[in-house]
Write a structure and sequence with these properties.
mainly alpha, 0% strand
Length: 100
């Protein structure tokens, strides 16, 4: 049963969440990076990913922003494409088409 509803006709649930502990949870950068990488997969839903990992969607969006600005380094995906620089040779003016 999904208890996240905006329907005002639905009765309120009697669910209470109690957070105990020493304040804010410290998320390691490597875990943040894995969660962000998961959120960037095609068809991924940030809210579902955040719920699965026990964080808030706002945190995931913040971590994604940090990854875009280079403040959070994402793990390299296995088999991911990488880019290499293109090197081109230029021929002297009269020989450019004759050499081919």
């Amino acid at each position: 049963m999904d208890d996240r509803s905006d329907d005002i006709r639905r009765p309120l649930t009697q669910r209470i969440e109690v957070y105990a502990g020493a304040g804010r949870k410290q998320w390691p950068d490597d875990l943040k990076a894995r969660i962000v990488a998961e959120s960037l997969e095609p068809g991924a839903v940030v809210t579902d990913i955040a719920c699965r990992h026990g964080c808030r969607p706002q945190q995931v969006h913040d971590w994604r922003r940090r990854a875009r600005s280079g403040q959070l380094v994402l793990p390299a995906a296995a088999g991911a494409l990488s880019f290499v620089p293109l090197v081109s040779e230029s021929y002297p003016s009269g020989e450019d088409r004759l050499a081919e």
